[in-house]
Amino acid sequence: MNSDLILLFWLGLACLALMLMVKFVYSTKVALLHLGTFVAYTSLLMYGMYFAGQGGTSLVWWCFLVFAYILHFIVLLITALYKKFK
Predict the structure, then answer these.
(1) pTM of the model
(2) In this model, does residue 75 exceed pLDDT 60?
(3) CA–CA separation, 80 vs 5, rounded Å?
(4) 34-42 — which CB contacts under 8 Å span 24+ positions?
(5) What is the SS3 assignment for the chain?
(6) Which residues of 31-57 are buried (b: 16+ CB within 10 A; e: fewer)?
(7) How far is 23 from 21, CA to CA, in rounded Å?
(8) Which residue, 63, 69, 70, 67, is CA-closest to 48?
(9) What is the C-alpha separation between 60 and 4, in angstroms, rounded?
């Protein structure tokens, strides 16, 4: 496994861990909404990275996926902290 995939793995794992935290802070419905969104964009961008990425465009799909993971991580963190300190 190369370092690019390891980075994607750890970012995805961090998002999943925060989704568990959101489940305990909010409810199961909110956590399932985040999980459904996570699975949807991950599968779409992974498909683009592996099957539609010819001629170097895999890097673009990889960057989109990293950006989506980081953005989702920030949204989950803000959501969890907002509810905790409200």
Answers:
(1) 0.77
(2) yes
(3) 27
(4) 34/72, 34/76, 37/72, 38/12, 38/72, 41/65, 41/68, 41/72, 42/12, 42/68
(5) CCHHHHHHHHHHHHHHHHHHHHHHHCCHHHHHHHHHHHHHHHHHHHHHHHCCCCCCCHHHHHHHHHHHHHHHHHHHHHHHHHHHHC
(6) beebbeebeebbeebeebbeeeeeeee
(7) 5
(8) 63
(9) 13
Pair of tokens at residue 14: 């961090």
Hunting for tokens 């465009």 — which residue is that? Answer: 57
Residue 41 vs residue 83, higher pLDDT: 41
Degrees to nearest 5, angle at CA 80 with 76 and 81: 115
pLDDT at 86 over 80: no
